[in-house]
């Protein structure tokens, strides 16, 4: 579930059983030589690993779907395993995923967008099967709509996830990356380069830079963050044609204007490069952005964030139902943890603390106690050793943490009682981190937007490093969730939370 704010790309993943070592990679270039960048012979529009990955995605999707359809035909329609149910479901599957562009190179590897598109295709498949049954009088399609298609969906989502994980491992080794030429001001280009290095699984490698003056961040410098500057903005298209770059990332610069961007788009036609323009006014992404033409002008519409409505009602229902189900499943674990805490120091099992919820209303948050009983009083004596960011108090080796508490914190088991807060409607399964009242008193106006939604048991902060994040990064991730929330994003975060908790990343 790869969801801090990152540059968008049309990157493909790679299945586990493909020999990635045999896939030809883009030529490695001398980062200190602008001439090496500019004189590289043009590469093919798609690297071998990209085309091969897409073929494997389609092949594995079709094989999985058809195998399950054939097995279902013999189990459900044993009297006539060759009837139209199986053939109709197979045809609906191929048509639904094709029409919804679930196999388009533009969405493969696009984080939550790939899963969202795949989900739409599978929903379309179920609808087509149901309508086909009504149209042709095959009324016994209920098992196919409510059992077979959902079963295909589960296997297909897991399969897509496995394919991408292998690709991510290769990219962390510096392989299977798309060559990028960044164009804009040195400062914004430097920020893009830093983000691509911090998140290699996105699949971008900035190999060259163009600026307005043709110089780097410092006067006379020929590079930005170690990446060579190969020319000026007006020379950009020529460098793309000679270098064979796959992505042209346009970042903010005062010298960009509509005419120059239009000319660049025209000049890039017929090349292998995709032009990606970073929003220059605000950091908004996801379903809130739509492009439409008004009065002959292309306009980027930014819809208001959704804090109410049908989708929020669905989220509320899922929160209540999901928390009740999880409480039932983990009840033996809750009992075992309670016994361990009690035997450790005979103190209370539950720690209650006032936190700030939606619209600034306070509530009592429940956690398993992980510190000594007088931890709040000892906090004043430890202020000089605070390692937390911003208004947060954190210590990597906090002496107040008990022996059992250390294990609970490492795997976030101390937060399980918050499921009761979710079930009561005070919290959500996914949302911003629930702050303390003294933290919110120090909030800047932008940070206070975190309070527009319910705090969450987990969130983008949880899957992006937790306590290892800076205060600014933590606020940015929470604001991104508030602004760009979607059900698909929630599902991605929940899945990534499971991985982060198991690995114990950033928890102390």
TrEMBL record:
Gene Ontology molecular function, alphabetical: phosphotransferase activity, for other substituted phosphate groups
UniProt keyword Transmembrane, yes or no: yes
Span of domain Bacterial sugar transferase: 315-502
Cellular location(s): Membrane
Highest taxon, organism lineage: Bacteria
Main location: membrane
NCBIfam families: EPS_sugtrans
Protein family: Belongs to the bacterial sugar transferase family.
Official protein name in the record: Exopolysaccharide biosynthesis polyprenyl glycosylphosphotransferase
């Amino acid at each position: 579930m790869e969801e801090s704010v990152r540059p968008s790309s049309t990157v493909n993943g790679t299945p586990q059983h493909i020999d990635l070592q045999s896939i030809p990679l883009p030529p490695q270039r001398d980062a200190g030589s602008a001439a090496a960048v500019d004189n590289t012979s043009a590469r093919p529009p798609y690297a071998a690993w990209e085309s091969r990955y897409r073929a494997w995605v389609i092949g594995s999707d079709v094989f999985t779907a058809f195998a399950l359809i054939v097995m279902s035909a013999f189990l459900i329609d044993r009297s006539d395993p060759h009837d139209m149910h199986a053939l109709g479901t197979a045809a609906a599957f191929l048509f639904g995923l094709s029409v919804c562009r679930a196999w388009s190179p533009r969405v493969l590897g696009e984080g939550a967008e790939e899963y969202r598109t795949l989900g739409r295709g599978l929903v379309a498949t179920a609808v087509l099967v149901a309508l086909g049954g009504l149209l042709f009088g095959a009324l016994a399609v209920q098992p196919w709509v409510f059992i077979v298609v959902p079963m295909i969906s589960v296997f297909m989502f897991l399969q897509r996830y496995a394919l991408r994980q292998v690709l991510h491992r290769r990219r962390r080794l510096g392989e299977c990356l798309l060559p990028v030429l960044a164009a804009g001001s040195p400062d914004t280009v430097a920020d893009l380069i830093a983000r691509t290095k911090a998140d290699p699984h996105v699949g971008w490698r900035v190999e060259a830079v163009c600026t307005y003056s043709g110089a780097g961040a410092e006067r006379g410098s020929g590079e930005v963050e170690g990446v060579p500057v190969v020319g000026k903005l007006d020379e950009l298209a020529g460098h793309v044609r000679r270098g064979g770059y796959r992505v042209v990332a346009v970042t903010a610069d005062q010298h960009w204007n509509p005419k120059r961007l239009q000319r660049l788009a025209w000049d890039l036609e017929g090349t292998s490069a995709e032009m990606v323009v970073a929003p220059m006014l605000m950091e908004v992404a996801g379903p809130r952005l739509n492009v439409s033409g008004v009065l002959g002008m292309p306009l980027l519409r930014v819809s208001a964030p959704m804090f109410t409505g049908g989708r929020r009602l669905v989220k509320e229902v899922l929160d209540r139902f999901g928390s009740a189900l999880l409480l039932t499943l983990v009840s033996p674990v809750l009992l075992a943890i309670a016994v361990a805490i009690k035997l450790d120091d005979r103190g209370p099992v539950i720690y209650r603390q006032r936190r700030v919820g939606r619209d600034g209303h306070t509530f009592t948050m429940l956690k398993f106690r992980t510190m000594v009983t007088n931890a709040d009083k000892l906090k004043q004596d430890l202020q000089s050793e605070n390692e937390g960011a911003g208004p947060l108090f954190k210590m990597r080796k906090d002496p107040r943490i008990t022996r059992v508490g250390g294990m609970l914190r490492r795997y976030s088991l101390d937060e399980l009682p918050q499921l009761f807060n979710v079930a009561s409607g005070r919290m959500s399964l996914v949302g911003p981190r629930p702050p303390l009242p003294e933290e919110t008193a120090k909030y800047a106006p932008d940070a206070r937007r975190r309070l527009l939604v319910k705090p969450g048991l987990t969130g983008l902060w949880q899957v992006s490093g937790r306590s290892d994040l800076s205060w600014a990064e933590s606020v940015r991730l929470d604001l991104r969730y508030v602004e760009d929330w979607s059900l698909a994003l929630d599902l991605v975060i929940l899945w990534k939370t499971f991985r982060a908790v198991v690995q114990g990343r950033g928890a102390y």
